[in-house]
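Minimal example, chain plus FE2/S2 (inorganic) cluster.
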Amino acid sequence: MAFYRLVQTHQLYDGFRCVVKAGRVELLVLHHQGQTHIVDNRCPHQGFPLDRGAIKGERLFCPRHGFGFHLTRGDCFQASSCTLPIYVSAYDGQWLGVEL
Ligand code: FES
């Protein structure tokens, strides 16, 4: 496993979003209601980018067809076979990252 730096923790604020490559994976980092979430930026339905998706409650909605994914579980109530990959946050000093 390798640690990939994504953003420095002081950059985070409510509403923060950024897309960062970690190895071959394109990740979306979101800070929402005091929580940081790291999810795959590709919708598991048909691969549409999720970085412009709306957040309602604890769900991120894909702009393409409107499927909503839970930010901490990744599940989707519109299609149980579509699960958004969720990544666990890791830290190295002031850096937030992931281990892949
Ligand atoms: S591509 Fe995201 S819901 Fe269809």
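The mean pLDDT is 97. The pocket of FE2/S2 (inorganic) cluster is lined by residues 43, 45-46, 48, 62, 64-65, 67 (CB under 6 Å).
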